């Protein structure tokens, strides 16, 4: 469950927020006038989020590469069949 605190707590209760961020390794959302305004998190949480983003990005890129390679392979096989001697009409005509 995300922890939400008013932004004034950052000034008035900084050590409490610091302790909360360090022990839970979860971000603390700070609100101003009832709206989430900023996030405070430990370096460990920040690095974990960045690592997760890198992993998801690489998985997404790998999936895109796989899709394009499959499409390219299908296209190559189709082109190969078109120019196969059995299907190529030029194979049966005499060149003068």
Q: Would you mind describing this structure in some detail?
A:
There is one protein chain. This protein is α+β, with helices and mostly antiparallel strands. The chain folds into 2 domains: 3-41; 43-89. It has 3 helices and 3 strands; from the N terminus they run E-H-H-E-E-H. It has helices spanning 8-12, 14-24, 43-82; strands at 3-6, 28-32, 35-40. Strands 1-2-3 form a 3-stranded mixed beta sheet. A hairpin with a 2-residue loop joins strand 2 (28-32) and strand 3. The longest helix is centred in the middle third of the chain and has 40 residues, at 43-82. The radius of gyration is 29 Å and the shape is rod-shaped. The protein starts with a strand and ends in a 14-residue tail after the last helix.
**What best-fitting shape do the alpha-carbon axes yield?**
rod-shaped
What is the terminal-to-terminal distance?
Answer: 81 Å
Q: Level of helix content?
A: 55-70%
Strand content: 15-25%
Question: Radius of gyration, rounded?
Answer: 29 Å
Q: Mean pLDDT score, rounded?
A: 81
In DSSP terms, counting alpha (H) and pi (I) runs of 4 or more, how many helices?
3
Q: Spatial order of the strands in the main sheet?
A: 1-2-3
Low-confidence residue ranges: none
Strand count, sense and barrel status of the largest sheet are: 3 strands, mixed
Number of domains: 2
- Overall structural class, as computed from helix and strand content, comes to alpha+beta
């Amino acid at each position: 469950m995300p922890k939400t605190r008013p932004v004034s707590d950052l000034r008035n209760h900084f050590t409490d927020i610091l302790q909360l961020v360090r022990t839970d390794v979860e971000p603390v959302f700070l609100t101003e006038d009832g709206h989430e305004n900023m996030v405070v998190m430990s370096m460990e949480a920040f690095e974990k989020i960045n690592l997760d983003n890198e992993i998801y990005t690489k998985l997404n890129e790998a999936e895109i590469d796989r899709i394009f390679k499959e499409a390219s392979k299908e296209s190559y096989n189709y082109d190969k069949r078109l120019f196969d001697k059995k299907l190529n009409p030029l194979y049966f005509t005499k060149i003068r």
